[in-house]
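Quarterly update from the structural biology core.
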Amino acid sequence: MDRITREKLKHDRLQQEFAHTVQYLSEHREKVRKYGLVAAGVLVVVLTLWGFLSYRRNVRQEDLRKATLVLDGFVGDPAQNPTGGLSFKTQAEKDAAAEKAFLEVANKYPKTREGLIARFQAATLACDQGKLADCEARFQEVAKSSDAEMASLAKLSLATLYQAQGRIPEAETLLRQLVASPTPLVSKEQAQIALAKALVRTKPQEARSIVESLKDIDRPPVSRAAVGVLGELSQR
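Predicted structure, tokenized:
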């Protein structure tokens, strides 16, 4: 079939399809108008919802930003504050204000990424202040959330806390979960290194096996950490 014939057939098909479309629209004008309006209405709702959610997200982020500013607050005589920002007479006063600010965000937006970040930070502040029960409880809340990335960070922090307290089996359980289900925030290798550190005393052979598999990996931070654990094992 020559090119001219193919082009003519293609043109004829397009004309037929266009004619059928015009005929359908003419015969079903009201239906098309009705459903066209419905589709437009749905689009308006979707765009409105998207805009609302974006606004809500921006509000949450702004609240979190304001809480974070407390961490940068000046401690000492306000008159000597070089930035002119927040000032606190003592570090204890600053710590209390920061913890309060993050908890307010966490409680206001409990199931959002911003709320979980705020609760995670409040847990860290509690740990720094020696309030270990509050620290553990807050990390646990984040660890149980549906946000896999924030949950992984909380589990890693909990495992570190448990290890420091000598609660090795609890730390081991969390770290094995992280090895099995890594996230962009807690890689498999990072979880393996943490697990090896936790097992140095209780299961040294397994700890050595883990780090031996990582010491030559082409990722300097991982290989250095693995060599460090091997050094700790060799001293035992």
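The two ends are 85 Å apart (CA to CA).
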